[in-house]
Write a structure and sequence with these properties.
2 domains; binds flavin mononucleotide; Alpha-Beta Plaits; binds iron/sulfur cluster; Rossmann fold; two-stranded antiparallel sheet; six-stranded parallel beta sheet; 10 strands; 9 helices; alpha/beta
């Protein structure tokens, strides 16, 4: 089984291709019981890097995951540039529950966070195509049962982001806020949110709990009316990004 978490589809596309190449199945993290993994002989964990670390839902999942001690476990982190300590976090959490990761890799994709500073993620940069070649190489290693850990390191930036002040800063920097003037209550953001943290009430989207948001940006990038703002600033349609092979429906299928 390949368990994935995704916001804008990069990790889903990677998990899907890995599954095709290895004959496994890719399953969204929200559909997997972390305590029910004991029968899996091979387990892949695919997730994006957020603020130099693994996303909070992934950390919570891995903290409760109980793979079989004999299972072949591997970790793939998708990122814009640097994985920070994301892979180390995942490996350590697995190890706490008696699972030793055999293989870890990173894949570079367009950066889903760059809109927060008004920058273009440049989906045509060729990174998605380059990542596909990387996935195929990972699949070959997995099939061969290779044991080889890459990108296992700490990160001062991640440690700072984890402090109370750092977390407040991150929460401010990526603060999603529906614009009541643009939102028509279509509910797509609620459907794609991997944390079930958006509801539509009175014909308008509303974030349920700030603390539950993983800052995955799905709601921002998939909103058809560009009504999900970052700190009140509208994200123009040409800056919205999702993996070209992934649709909104893929996220909630
Ligand atoms: C809130 C946030 C923080 C991010 N932080 C990092 C980072 O620290 N390092 C990095 O290389 N990429 C970072 N990214 C980019 C994502 O890791 C990258 O685009 C990833 O492939 C997105 O995967 P997804 O489409 O499966 O959500 C960040 C993205 C978001 C939304
Ligand atoms: S996807 Fe956009 S328009 Fe639709 S409910 Fe969400 S914020 Fe409103
Ligand atoms: S509210 Fe938006 S950014 Fe936060 S977890 Fe849900 S979809 Fe992701």
């Amino acid at each position: 089984m390949i368990v994935y978490f995704t916001g804008t589809g990069n990790s889903l596309a990677a998990a899907r291709r890995l599954a095709e190449r290895t004959g496994d199945r890719a399953v969204p993290l929200r559909a997997v019981r972390p305590e029910g993994l004991a029968a899996e002989r091979r387990l892949g964990i695919v997730f994006p890097v957020y603020c130099f670390d693994a996303p909070s839902p992934v950390r919570e999942f891995l903290a409760r995951a109980r793979p079989s001690p004999g299972a072949y476990v591997y970790v793939v982190a998708t990122c814009g540039a640097s994985v920070g300590r994301a892979i180390r976090t995942a490996i350590n959490l697995l190890a706490r529950n008696g699972a030793e990761a055999a293989l870890s890799r990173k894949l570079r994709y367009p950066d889903s966070a760059s809109v927060a500073v008004g920058a273009n993620t440049n989906p045509k940069s060729g990174r998605c195509a380059a990542a596909e070649a990387g996935i195929d190489a990972i699949a070959r290693d997995v099939e061969a049962g290779r044991r080889d850990l890459h990108e296992v390191r700490g990160s001062c930036a991640a440690a700072l982001a984890a402090t109370r002040t750092g977390a407040a800063l991150v929460s401010w920097a990526f603060r999603q806020e529906p614009d009541p003037g643009r939102c028509n209550g279509c509910g797509l953001c609620a459907k794609v949110c991997p944390c079930s943290n958006i509801e539509v009430a009175g014909g308008r989207a509303r974030i349920r709990e700030r603390g539950r948001c993983a800052h995955c940006m799905a709601c921002v990038h998939f909103c058809p009316r560009q009504a999900m703002t970052i700190r009140g600033r509208r994200v123009r349609s040409e800056l919205q990004y999702h993996h070209p092979g992934v649709t909104a429906a893929d996220l909630f299928a």
